[in-house]
Amino acid sequence: MIKAEIITIGDEILYGQITDTNTQWISAELDKIGIKTVRKSSVGDTEEAILGIFTEATSRADVVLVTGGLGPTKDDITKKTFCKFFGTELAIHEQAMADLKAFFLKRGREVTGLNKGQAELPLNATYIHNKLGTAPGMWFEANGVIYISMPGVPYEMKGLMTDAILPKLKEHFKTPTILHQIIRTVGIGESILAEKISDWEDALPENIKLAYLPSMGSVKLRLTGFGDSLEVLQAQIASEVAKLLPIAEEYIYALEDIELEVAVGRILKDKKLTVSTAESCTGGYLAHQFTKVAGSSSYFWGSIISYDNSVKINQLEVLPATLAQFGAVSEETIIQMAENVRKKLGTDIGLATSGIAGPDGGTPEKPVGTIWIAVSTKEQTITQKLQLGGFREQNIHLTSINILNLLRKVLK
Amino acid sequence: MIKAEIITIGDEILYGQITDTNTQWISAELDKIGIKTVRKSSVGDTEEAILGIFTEATSRADVVLVTGGLGPTKDDITKKTFCKFFGTELAIHEQAMADLKAFFLKRGREVTGLNKGQAELPLNATYIHNKLGTAPGMWFEANGVIYISMPGVPYEMKGLMTDAILPKLKEHFKTPTILHQIIRTVGIGESILAEKISDWEDALPENIKLAYLPSMGSVKLRLTGFGDSLEVLQAQIASEVAKLLPIAEEYIYALEDIELEVAVGRILKDKKLTVSTAESCTGGYLAHQFTKVAGSSSYFWGSIISYDNSVKINQLEVLPATLAQFGAVSEETIIQMAENVRKKLGTDIGLATSGIAGPDGGTPEKPVGTIWIAVSTKEQTITQKLQLGGFREQNIHLTSINILNLLRKVLK
Known about the structure:
alpha/beta; homodimer; Molybdenum Cofactor Biosythetic Enzyme, Chain A; five-stranded mixed β-sheet
């Protein structure tokens, strides 16, 4: 087993001033290539703390990944401390300086003052070009351990890992061939899904492991195969997926790691169908799920967010008598919302949501979390009543997932 | 200085399968009472790893806070490992058992099987009641160090910290009186703000510290005063805030820790004004910023999301000639969008956004990140052109912050 240790340097993380998303991402990526993280640590911007954790990590890990402390200011002492740790010193690295100059030139600026220091590296460092920023990545080999230094800015770190460091680690450690297969599900909880597929799971070959990765409203399955031959693994995993499909097909929306709104968007695009939304309780969140996907303008046309009943009446042409008799949170209202937004915006499909997101507005008959959703096509309008929980943000999110899933089923 | 170390136990966090939000929250809360976190660590569910970090932390910290590993299953070995570390053993704790039974009774169930183990504590533990779950909190004093054990479920941990542990720590360590004042700003970057207020910052009394807490599109300032008397601190901080206001008033939207949409919502509510949005590039995200706030239905009436030009023409009544001559991303179009949504939805104010969020759709004249926003009232329509960057989600978010800020200024 190849053991990794991840170290985050910076007072801001230590004092809780910023959120550290780097360590989770790095450990998940290492896991995918068969490297196990055994310790994650955050330390402050002091030489003593950094030297201490470097020494400890050296005794525990095969590879030590360090983020942060590479800025141009005095607070950032990672490089100097690496020098002290390795007994070496900083010097201008020619390629690093050339890349730094090119980086600034592209932005119409020159490398001045403090920024020049960004091209200085410890003499024993292998330089790794950071295309997205001024702090280089570095790779060290010493004490039988690999040390990797990266900037703390998440997209710069991810760029370095993906382009250079993960491939280099695979090569260096001659990691076994590993193949992952993601299976994304929706509409079923983790424990019920686990029960449903337990026979299949128990019969998986020894070299194929299953992980459940749940998030709110959705469970991700990950099959990981370990072996020598990629072809054999591909065939094995394909055969296992083929056995799983008949058991859980209705819940599986993708055999790759994409969100539900992306999967639904692709179906709409393929079928050349357009969609619009009429939203009350989701208040624009559903539209945002569609529109945050690049390229969604080819199938998503627009919405009428009818938070106030006057907007339901005047823009969505919901009959005042329906609202008076059944209320805004009712099957009668939701049908009109979905059908009318479809007709008014001229799309193939209309979606509608209306409910009590909370924390206020509940009644004994319609408690907080009572939500109606509808999907309307030219042929039919399908409705569903949801009974969700007590938290506003959760209700908005789960309503959105439920209606995207209902749409997915209608499209099948 | 009182030093804290925070330890997270669990393979799921170590392998990156779940996000750890606990350590950031804990360190931020400790910081507020004057306890400095010197190390954060995550280790796996093995006795060796847990004993190792306990020993290390004992030599570095005055208080060690541990989360996770308290479930009823075999994986969860925190309590057993504490016993080994302290040289003691587990025994049923009577109060813990009584509370456990009451917890289950409330849910119409009895304490059975594995769950009984939840009432077993190391003999040297001080029991802390967890009102929100079955895993008790524990407080140990040994080796001149305080050890605290809490469940990893975030809302259970937060409940324990807020109700019991933070007050107990304050008392135990006789921490000084600390007073915080949050000042939320928008519309100015961290470095320019720092320059603007540097004279004021330099003149702050010795016992008042300033922290910059930036997030995308907004900078939070936090003043922290240390002293003996709360009254003196309150007067001191009020006097410093009064000096700051004339320097940075145009950027300060709240003297408490609330988001911009909450602050703007309060102004709308106070002035009894209603608002609607016409959104192209934000695609519902702006409406969601309003509607995610509980109680927003009293001032937010609705939106027309006009992603497709047909919706701009048919629902928002933007003139086809305007779109043909100037395009959807233009001052001429945004004015019509804002004015027409205000009139059509019958609100006091209409907001509109139209731009190129990316990654595609840019041209040399209107590159990705070119965005027009407008705020329309009965008296006037104010427009602004934004030139943002290359990332879609960032452009959507920053557009929303910019228009909320423009609205805030108009309302003043």
